[in-house]
Amino acid sequence: xxxxxxxxxxxSQHTYADGDLFICPDCAHEWGQDAAVAATxxxxxxxxxxxxxxDGDSVTVVKDLKIKGSSSVVKVGTKVKNIRxxxxxxxIDCKIEGFGSxxxxxxxxxxx
Length: 112
Prior knowledge:
Elements: E1 16-18, E2 21-23, E3 30-32, H1 33-40, E4 59-61, E5 65-66, E6 73-74, E7 79-80, E8 84-85, E9 92-96, E10 100-104, E11 109-111
Antiparallel strand pairs: 1-2, 2-3, 4-7, 4-11, 5-6, 8-9, 9-10
């Protein structure tokens, strides 16, 4: 049994090494051996000032944020309680009073 990592894209176990690369024959995805090590480390979410965030934190908006599909704006200084961290571009899931449920980018908030 080999100790090669599974494909990060399709999670296939049929990967092989080719020099400094790992290759998946199922989906043709190629990645470096250093990327395989980085993929096993857990993600750390940070706010606009480099403070580490975790689920349940309270945060404050540091920039006026336009709401897509609306003329409303989330103003600077708006406090958001009990955030939930998720994967993706918008990596914070929360409820903002007066606006409802939405997702924010961690680069536009600071830990309260």
